[in-house]
Amino acid sequence: MSASDIDTIFALATAPGRGAIAIIRVSGPDCAAIAERLAGGFAFDRRMRLRALRDPATGETLDSALVVGFPEGASFTGEAMTELHLHGGRAVAAAVMRALAALGAQPAAPGAFSRRAFDNGRLDLLEAEGVAQLAAAETEAQRRLALWSLGGAASATVAAWRETLVEALVWFEADSDFGEEELGGGVAAPGYARVRELVALLDAARAKGDAAARIREGARVAIIGPPNVGKSSLINALVKRDIAITSPIAGTTRDALEARCEAFGFDLTLVDTAGLRVTDDPIEAVGVARAQAAAETADLRVFVSSPEATADLTTRRSSDLHVANKADLGCIGEDADFTVSAVTGEGLDALLDAIGARIVDAGAAQGAFSTARHLAALDGARAALARAAQAPPEIAAEECRLAAQALDSLIGRVDVEHILDGVFSTFCLGK
Ligand SMILES: Nc1nc2c(ncn2[C@@H]2O[C@H](COP(=O)(O)OP(=O)(O)OP(=O)(O)O)[C@@H](O)[C@H]2O)c(=O)[nH]1
Ligand SMILES: [Mg+2]
User: Fold this and answer.
1) Which pLDDT score is estimated for 397?
2) pLDDT of residue 212
3) Is the CB of 214 under 6 A from ligand 1?
4) pLDDT for 417
5) Which residue ranges in the chain fall short of pLDDT 70?
6) Does ligand 1 come within 6 angstroms of the Cβ of 236?
7) Cβ contacts of 234 within 8 Å, gap of 6 or more
8) Whole-angstrom Cα distance, residue 245 to residue 291?
9) Of the ligands numbered here, which is closest to the C-alpha atom of 344?
10) Domain check: are 202 and 276 in the same one?
11) Is 326 in the pocket of ligand 1 (CB under 6 A)?
12) Residue 71 is part of a domain; what is its CATH number?
């Protein structure tokens, strides 16, 4: 239909299945011509209109829909775009998509719209990832994290780092160009100072990044400790559901049991474990081994003790959150971080707050680089800068260029096709 070699693409942008409305997006050079055949001509002025959509072959009415056109340069992709807001039945969207295909539009691959937005300079890579993260956000913290990326704050952070890098580079190059004879020694000193400054900033970002990854991917908290201290009772009280068997018999819990805790703005799974003790019972021994494995892989260990637990506490680590349970019985663990009672509920809110704070520092929730791709780029830049700090100016300049490349890969400025394909293929259809 057009001489352009760019396809006009379409996809269902809303979740497949039954709903009140379904939105199909169409983007590309033939958008207006296709929309005219389907819905009659209308201006691409970003206003909605009610139109009958007709099968171009038979003239049969397919739906009565709201249609809107976005002109080239003022749309999500940067191309001419149409959105068709249909009634939500599966058959409606299916019939309209058949009509679009018959009119020469191509079904879009996942992420194709965002890819076009990126290619047309509407979004950089971090912003595009923010779009995908926002579409996938299930918790408050995930939503905030996604908006930090989508809103350009992530890109602005990278730009500021890059500026510091360029300043360092200027000093290193001045040193190589003019050398000691003309300007005296130590020309490059401010360059090294910038490098150290940036290493500290990247370290801080990296520390937040791990916490932010837990926001995106969810965190696991293992509840461990000697038998019978009330680990299972504590989990039941924290999630307000009776999910774990509790009993006065030591060695009740055998399997590691998981419960999703809804108290936070991010996914958090509490793992109940078998009480840690030396045992002759082969089944309990397996449980103890599983408890230890769960504790090793957890993002946080909560070590529970109780007044009557005589088992030794040597498995406790200083990084554990130490909780003394059964406060209602009177005597409490004097060296514990928290004193609680699974029976009366005393201290549980404070414990939940502390767990949340240990998992996610507030800074990370406000925004941080969190995907494996981001963290690899930060690590790459950090490594180059660490080498620069030790190197003579000429080599330090080269390392700074490498660090700049790593940072550029974050926003997609270096055109590395496999990075782009990798990122966009993880998007959902219609994005
Ligand atoms: N008084 C009092 N009793 C508690 C409290 N928490 C748990 N218990 C009792 O302590 C006993 C053991 O509780 P569980 O929750 O099964 O203990 P556990 O640590 O999971 O034990 P194992 O699975 O055997 O390792 C039960 O009889 C509970 O009712 C508490 O806060 N106060
Ligand atoms: Mg138990």
Assistant:
1) 92
2) 82
3) no
4) 65
5) 1-4, 178-185, 309-314, 331-334, 361-365, 414-420, 422-423
6) no
7) 223, 304, 323, 325, 340, 342
8) 16
9) 1
10) no
11) yes
12) 3.30.1360.120
Answer whether residue 398 is part of any domain. yes
Say whether both 259 and 319 belong to one domain: yes
Cα-to-centroid distance, 228 and ligand 1 (Å): 5
C-beta 97 within 6 A of ligand 1 = no
* Token code pair at residue 381: 């830049």
Gap from CA of 197 to ligand 2 centroid (Å): 49
pLDDT at position 364 is 66
Compute, in angstroms, the gap from residue 213 CA to the centroid of ligand 2: 30
The whole-number pLDDT of residue 1 equals 47
Residue 22: strand, helix, or coil: strand
Q: Do 261 and 392 have their domain in common?
A: no
Per DSSP bridges, beta strands 257-261 and 81-87 are unpaired
What's the chain's length in residues? 431
**Which of 238, 246, 281, 310 to mutate for ligand 1's pocket (most ligand atoms within 8 Å of CB)?**
246
Which residue puts its alpha carbon closest to atom 3 of ligand 1? 326
Closest protein CA for atom 2 of ligand 1: 326
pLDDT (tens digit per residue) in 75-91:
999 999 999 999 999 99
- Cβ(84)–Cβ(65) under 8 Å? yes
The answer as to whether 297 is a domain residue is: yes
pLDDT score, position 215: 77
Over the range 224-254, which residues count as b (16 or more CB within 10 Å of their CB) and which as e? Answer: bbbbbbbbbbbbbbbbeeeebebeeeebbbb
Note down the domain range covering 244. 218-364
Query: Does 209 lie in the same domain as 93?
Result: no
Cα 291 to ligand 1 centre (Å): 17
